[in-house]
Structures are given as C-alpha cells and as structure tokens.
C-alpha cells in the first residue's frame, strides 16, 4: 500500500510526487506514455520554447543582423535539424524527471490508470493489467486540445500544437484558429521561418483574457512580423485533402464568409480537462460543465482522500500553477497548512516581444469598481532597449488609488518573462507602487522600465519621458 498514488506525470504530478517523497511518504506515479513530464515537457512548454528560440535566431540573422553591422552570406533553415534539437531538449528534460523519480525512490508505473475503488487503481498496459493501492490518490491527468468536429481534425493538415511541433518542412501558408497563447506563440515560430500566417480570432482582440493594452501592443509587433489577423471572425468549417486544407471564415454578426486555402490549419482554441478512461463515476466524482474535476480549497474532490490538481481542475492551465498545486496537496496530506495565492500566479506569452502579467487587469479593476491609478512606460524610452533594438512594448503598473498597493503589472517587451518576477515578489509582500519606484534598478537593464512605470503611477513623475 502506497501513502500516495499519483495519476499523471506532468508538472503537477511529478512535482507533487517529489514533494511527497521529501516529506517521507511512499509514492507511486502512473503515466500512460513511456516518457515522463506530461504535456509540458513532451508537447507543450519545453518543445515550443525550443522552436521559439531557434526561429528567433533565424529571424534575427535574416532581419536584424545587418543593422547591427553583421553581414551574413545566405542563411538557410535546416528544419530537420531544428526539430532534432527540439527533440533532444525534450528527451533530456524528460530524462531528468526519470532521474528525479529514482533519486526520490518514487515507483513509476507505465500504463493507463483507472479507479477500481477510491483506493485501488488499475493499470492497463500492453504487458497486462495490475492493481496498486494508495491511502490517498492525486489525479493529475492534465488536458487535451479542443477540436470541434466541424474543423475535421485529421492530425495531417488540420492539426493542433502537438502535430505543429513536428512539422519538418516550412509551410507556405498556415491558418491558425484562435488568437490565444498557443496561436500566437506557434504563429510566431512559423511567421519567423517565412510561413504566411493568418490568425482567426473570435473576439475583437488577441489574448482576450489578458489586459487589453497587452493584446494591442503585441498585435502591432506581430503585424510587423507579417502575421495577418481576422479579429471578430470565426471558422465555420475546415476541409482537408492529403496536401492542403480550406478554411471557411465568417465575420461575427454577419452572413459574409470567405475561404482561405492553406498548407495547414492549426486549431488553437483552448484545451479541455482530460479525464477519459479514469472511470471517475465508479467512485462518485463528478465534473463541472467544462469537464473539470470539482475540488475544495484543499484540492480534495467530493471523495475524501482523492485529490485533483493542474489542468484537470479550475484555474489557469499553466505548468507553474500545476506545480504549486502538486506541492500544496503533498504538504496538506502530510499535515501541513499550505496556501496558494492564485492572484499572484504570473502569465507569460513567449512571443517577441514577450508578454507577462500578474494580478488584476485594468478591465477587472474597472468592473469591480476598485479605485486605481495607472503608470505606463514605453520601452522605446529605455537606453537598454535601444541598445538591443527591442523598443516595442511597455510596462503598466496598476496601483490602488488610496493605498498605493500594487494591484496588477502588465508588460510587453524584451525579456519581460523574467522581468515580471520583480512584480510577483513585490506583490507577494503587498508592496506599494512607491516601494517599487524607490528600489534601485541596475542600469542599463530592461527592469528600469518597471521602476519608471511605478514612478508614473506614484504621482506621474517618471524620469526618462
Ligand atoms: P499534463 O502536463 O497534461 O500531464 C498529465 C499527464 O497525465 C500526461 O502525461 C498524461 O499522459 C497523463 N495521463 C492522463 N490520463 C492518464 C491515465 N488515465 N493514466 C495514466 N496517465 C494519464 N504552461 C506554462 O506554464 N508555460 C508555457 O510556456 C506553456 N507552454 C505550453 C505550450 C503548449 C504548446 C501547450 C499545449 C501547453 C503549454 N503550457 C504552458 C501549459 C502546460 O503544458 C500545462 O498547463 C501543464 O502541462 C499542466 O500540467 P498537468 O500536470 O496538470 O498535466
Ligand atoms: P487560449 O484560451 O489561450 O486561446 C484560445 C483563443 O481562441 C481565445 O482567444 C479564444 O477567444 C479563441 N477562440 C475560441 N473559440 C474560437 C473559435 N471558434 N474561433 C476563433 N477563435 C476562437 O487557448 P490556447 O491558445 O489553445 O492554449 C490552451 C492553454 O494552454 C491555455 O490555457 C494556456 O494557458 C496554455 N498555454 C500556456 C502557454 C504559456 O504559458 N506561455 C503557452 C501555450 C499554452
């Protein structure tokens, strides 16, 4: 009998397993695929960032080196090598998780897990069926892409991110359905490599769940990269042959529709919690209208001793959110009183410029009637950004009008994926915009834009604009 059986080895499951083992518990983890690490390591965060980096190098070599005074002879793409390097990064990272499981004496089972009772889990694999028992069980089965039938997802020409990460020849044309995180990150990869990319987004702006200014700023940069946007448009159907596809696009609130012919149609309209085959009904666990497992504040389901974490429950579908939840459940099972402040889980989009945010958006503050003040600073006014020719974007600090407490920070710009951590740390300690503005920031760095935006929020006194 294990202390804890964890189903799924993504960032939620494997991090929860390590924390449980550190706390002295005997842990088993079950993963249906041969490689560990889940969506994030195998077909998500890590491979997409590997291709984003490779495509950025190519783009810089072809579009930006000359201005820096670097002359190149013909720069060519070797897509097979790009994918091979990506695969190596993935297998090194997944191998790292395997090592960590061994190091922490966590038993790894390969096969599809399903509930027999709330404590007994069956594992089916080509080698046969076995059962293991756990005093507690954590469901960390993640999510899968949403692929409506009318899009005729065929994994060949109509694809999701999973297949897009393995395209081995630069496509001539790609239509992306969805102007969210996946659409814009992978859209950037292919646009940088020379693909003509159209993004069809149902809402009137890209990144609709983020602060409005972020979407606006990013769209300007992505248009310069050559991405074409159809905002306020939906896709009514996709038809594919072996070698191409035709996407029918319709303007919202209109009968007007038109076809776009492309090599690929990438469906990136969100992901759904993945509970297929778990046999949840056998133990009385229900899911909500979006298919998410319902949990309480300790991430425990309606069945005592059975927990759920990560993409399979409510909240942002982010690797670091899943990790924090894995840690929370392990510590709670061990008798601790852990806590997560969901408001302070940062979000990042790894386009160029990058987008990063934490806390409340301006739209949320407006809607909740909280009095706030805004400070903004554009990267074009920053020496560091001019030195690297990365002048697109801005930092926006939102602070409470009366108390000056920082309520939200939103950024579009160079390396803001890393810069955002200053805001997260300060908000964790409930700092004011004045605190942020009085901290010494090294010069020249991109972080100076944060200080300047905080100065702008505290009485409109930025120094360099
Ligand atoms: P997953 O990582 O989905 O892991 C679940 C695991 O459970 C899988 O390995 C699955 O095979 C296994 N499983 C499912 N059912 C069973 C079963 N019955 N038996 C055994 N095993 C089972 N997030 C970020 O924070 N940053 C990023 O940069 C980022 N980039 C992304 C890029 C892409 C293209 C995608 C698709 C996602 C990205 N994400 C990113 C989101 C991130 O991958 C997820 O939020 C994260 O992986 C969720 O972790 P999880 O542990 O909940 O589930
Ligand atoms: P998303 O929710 O970020 O974006 C989906 C977009 O598709 C939205 O803008 C939505 O308005 C639009 N949309 C929905 N239905 C549509 C339709 N029929 N026609 C046109 N547009 C439509 O989802 P995603 O980009 O698929 O990503 C899935 C999840 O993966 C996200 O929740 C995200 O958190 C996670 N992810 C994170 C990162 C990161 O952290 N950098 C990267 C990739 C993915």
Q: Could you explain how this protein is built, in words?
A:
This protein is an alpha/beta fold and 465 residues long. It has helices spanning 11-22, 38-43, 45-64, 79-103, 161-164, 181-193, 212-224, 319-333, 362-368, 383-388, 416-428, 433-438, 448-457, and strands spanning 2-7, 27-31, 107-110, 112-115, 120-125, 128-139, 143-145, 158-159, 173-177, 196-201, 228-231, 233-240, 245-251, 257-262, 264-267, 271-273, 306-308, 347-349, 354-359, 372-378, 394-400, 406-413. The strands form five sheets. Strands 1, 2, 3, 4, 5, 6 and 17 form a seven-stranded mixed sheet that branches. β10 (196-201), α7 (212-224) and β11 form a beta-alpha-beta unit. The longest helix has 25 residues, at 79-103. The chain is globular and about 65 Å long. Residues 7-13, 30-33, 38-40, 44-45, 48, 112-113, 140-143, 161, 182, 274, 277-278, 310-311, 317-320, 322, 350 line the site of flavin-adenine dinucleotide (FAD).
Class from helix and strand fractions: alpha/beta
Q: Architecture of the largest domain, according to CATH?
A: 3-Layer(bba) Sandwich
Overall body shape:
globular
Please state roughly what percent of the residues sit in beta strands, choosing from under 5%, 5-15%, 15-25%, 25-35%, 35-45% or over 45%. 25-35%
By CATH, the superfamily of the largest domain comes out as FAD/NAD(P)-binding domain
Number of domains: 3
Q: Say how many strands there are.
A: 22
Q: How many distinct helices?
A: 13
Distinct bound molecules: flavin-adenine dinucleotide, nicotinamide-adenine-dinucleotide
Radius of gyration: 23 Å
Task: Please bin the fraction of helical residues.
Answer: 25-40%
Major sheet summary line = 7 strands, mixed
Low-confidence stretches: none
Mean pLDDT: 97
CATH topology of the largest domain: FAD/NAD(P)-binding domain
């Amino acid at each position: 009998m294990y202390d804890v059986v964890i189903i799924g080895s993504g960032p939620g499951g494997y991090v929860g397993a390590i924390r449980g083992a550190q706390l002295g518990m005997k842990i088993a983890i079950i993963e249906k695929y041969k490689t560990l690490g889940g969506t994030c390591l195998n077909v998500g965060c890590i491979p997409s960032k590997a291709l984003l980096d490779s495509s950025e190098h190519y783009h810089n070599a072809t579009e930006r080196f000359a201005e820096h005074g670097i002359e190149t002879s013909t720069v060519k793409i070797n897509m097979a090598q790009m994918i091979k390097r990506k695969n190596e990064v993935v297998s090194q990272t997944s191998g790292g998780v395997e090592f960590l499981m061994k190091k922490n004496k966590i038993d790894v089972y390969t096969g599809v897990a399903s509930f027999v009772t709330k404590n007994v889990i069956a594992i089916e694999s080509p080698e046969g069926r076995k059962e293991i028992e756990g005093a507690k069980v954590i469901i960390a089965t993640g999510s899968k892409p949403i692929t409506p039938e009318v899009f005729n997802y065929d994994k060949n020409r109509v694809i999701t991110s999973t297949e897009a990460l393995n395209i081995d020849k630069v496509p001539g044309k790609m239509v992306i359905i969805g102007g969210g995180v996946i659409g814009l990150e992978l859209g950037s990869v292919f646009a940088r490599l020379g693909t003509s990319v159209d993004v069809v987004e149902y809402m009137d702006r890209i990144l609709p769940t983020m602060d409005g200014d972020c979407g606006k700023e990013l769209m300007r940069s992505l248009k310069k990269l050559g991405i074409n946007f159809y905002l306020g448009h939906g896709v009514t159907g996709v038809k594919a042959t072996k070698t191409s596809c035709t996407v029918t696009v319709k303007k919202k609130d209109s009968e007007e529709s038109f076809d776009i012919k492309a090599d690929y149609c990438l469906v990136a309209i969100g992901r759904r919690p993945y509970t297929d085959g778990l046999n949840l009904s056998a133990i009385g666990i229900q899911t909500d209208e979006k298919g998410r497992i319902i949990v309480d504040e300790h991430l425990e389901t309606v069945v005592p001793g059975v927990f759920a974490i990560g993409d399979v429950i409510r909240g942002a579908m982010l690797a670091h959110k899943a990790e924090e939840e894995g840690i929370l459940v392990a510590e709670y099972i061990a008798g601790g009183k852990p806590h997560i402040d969901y408001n302070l889980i940062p979000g990042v989009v790894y386009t160029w410029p990058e987008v990063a945010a934490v806390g409340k958006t301006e739209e949320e503050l407006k809607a909740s009637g909280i009095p706030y003040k805004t400070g903004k600073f554009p990267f074009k006014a920053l020496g560091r950004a001019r030195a690297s020719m990365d002048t697109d974007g801005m930092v926006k600090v939102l602070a409470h009008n009366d108390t000056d407490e920082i309520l939200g920070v939103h950024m579009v710009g160079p390396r803001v994926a890393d810069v955002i951590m200053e805001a997260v740390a300060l908000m964790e300690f409930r700092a004011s915009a004045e605190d942020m503005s009085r901290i010494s920031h090294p010069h020249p760095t991109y972080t100076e834009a944060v200080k300047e935006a905080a100065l702008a929020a505290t009485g409109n006194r930025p120094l360099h604009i």
